[in-house]
Amino acid sequence: MATCSWARLIAVATLAATILVTIDGSPAAADTNACSNPVLASDLNDWGSLDGASVSRDPVGEPIGASWAFDTGGREFYMPSLSVTPGQSWTVSAKDAVVFGSGSAKIAVDWFSSTGDYLGEQQAPSVTLPASTASAGTWVLVSATFTVPSGAAFAHVLQIGDFGSATGTDFKATVCNYQLATTSPSDSAAVRYGWGSAVAGQSDEYNATSVDLAKWGLFGADPGQRTGCTPGFNGHGRRCAAQTTESGGFLSVSGTADGVTGGLYARTRPFKYGRIEVRERAVQLSMSGGRYGAVPLLWPADDNNWQSAEIDFAERPVGDPEIDLFVHHDGTQTYCPLAIDSTQFHNYAIDWQPNSVTWYVDGNLVCTVNAAVPYFNVTNGGAQLDMIPATGPMRAARQDIDWIRMYQNSHTQYQ
Q1: Are 171 and 139 contacting, i.e. CB atoms less than 8 angstroms apart?
Q2: Were 240 and a residue from 124, 184, 226, 229 both cysteine, which residue would form a disulfide, CB within 3.0 to 4.6 Å?
């Protein structure tokens, strides 16, 4: 938790006892955007400055779905607030741009009780905002997922910009989107099909403040180390350990415009056959350049023979409207596609049997590939962000993992 400045506290505390997010007079549902004024269609209601800077409602031609944006000459502002319940998980986002400067922005949430008592603040990692012009803005998704702490009844959603020494900047935002994470057990294949308890040593909830190096190795670093870089996928760009971080309840792998990315691999006991489920998303942070490839995967081979032993269970270019299951076996591959918005969190799962791999998305059976992959898994890779093009520039991107869980099936073996 960070300490809230008194200026910020005073600016938002007056809203704590009065704002209750509704859509058409009804409480916001799990699949409904709970941001009360998402595109500033008529006014600036529920948007405002936190640092006393001037604000305006500006006409814009982008991003898609918005004709107006909030604009401040300052560095900190608030967006519409949210009524919450302890234990809920909310993903909050907006599209941002900065004119007459460049830098970064991050979302923060201030928590308040039902009586208006300030409970603390959580901040998400910063997202890069490239320079834009008044006529051609580069709109970037700024997003974060938070779990509501005990005692909280209201969340005040804030943004904090950092544009260095630049003066005269216009910090813009629109298309705010607040989504309550679905808590129905049916979204989990493990729950729906009764897979039992996850194997703790092969699973991770990513609730710590740094990656567990006893369980995971970072691309770019030696085992047990947090620094270093190596060549990237097929020698494209670089994989650096610093690009893989854990905070705020999830693991993140960031890819930069100049081709620096990361990922992680398991250092736990190799296993053959079993069930894996991961909650994951990948988002573009800029819209110019080549696209990174994001994939949760198993790599059941220790001899680099991926053509005969690899299971990619949500592979796609970041931002693509389709994801694929790829099962590499016997020197060939079999794939199964699914249309989905993979910039939002989804649960991807596989049941790896001796002669088949069955794929589930959000608890729904998508397809079964009848193929044998009789090798011990040595990666259990929940996160991998690859530079696919040989040269850049790349669209900056980030892959987020909420959790990864491994379950035994009747054929599970350990090496």
Answers
A1: no
A2: 229
Q: Which domain holds residue 221?
A: 185-414
Q: What is the distance between the alpha carbons of residues 403 and 296, in angstroms, rounded to a whole number?
A: 11
Residues 32 and 63 in one domain: yes
- β-pair partners for 348: 278, 361
Tokens for 73? Answer: 């000459």
Span 230-239, mean pLDDT? 95
Q: Check whether 273 has a pLDDT greater than 90.
A: yes
The tokens of 67 are what?
């004709």
Asked if residue 352 is part of any domain, the answer here is yes
* 38 touches 175 (CB < 8 A): yes
The verdict on 109 and 241 lying in the same domain is no
Q: Is the sign of the CA dihedral 288, 348, 314, 265 positive or negative?
A: positive
397 falls in which pLDDT band (50, 70, 90)?
A: very high
* CATH code at position 174: 2.60.120.260
Q: Using CA of residue 335, residue 336, residue 340, residue 344, what is the dihedral sign? A: negative
Per DSSP, what are the bridge partners of residue 290?
394
In this structure, are residues 243 and 253 in contact, taking their beta carbons and an 8 Å threshold? Answer: yes
What six digits make up the tokens of 139?
């709109």
Nearest 5°: phi and psi at 158? -125, 160
Position 1 in a domain: no
Alpha helices, DSSP H, located in 6-148: 6-13
Do the Cβ atoms of 63 and 95 come closer than 8 Å? yes
Using alpha carbons, select from 200, 370, 374 the residue that is nearest to residue 273: 374
Confidence label for 182 from pLDDT (cuts 50, 70 and 90)? low
Find the Cα–Cα–Cα–Cα dihedral 124, 400, 276, 348, rounded to 10°: 120
CATH number at residue 238: 2.60.120.200
Query: How many CA atoms within 13 Å lie on the side-chain side of 199?
Result: 19
What would the pLDDT profile of 193-217 be if each residue is shown by its tens digit? 889 999 999 999 999 999 999 999 9
Residues facing 328 on adjacent strands: 310, 333
Q: Between β-strands 76-78 and 48-49, what pairing exists: parallel, antiparallel or unpaired?
A: antiparallel
Among residues 314, 33, 301, which one has the least CA distance to residue 179?
33
Cα 56 from chain centre: 30
pTM of the full structure: 0.60
| Residue 373 pLDDT | 92
Q: What is residue 150's predicted lDDT score, i.e. its pLDDT?
A: 83
What's the rounded Cα separation, in Å, for the pair 292 and 223?
25
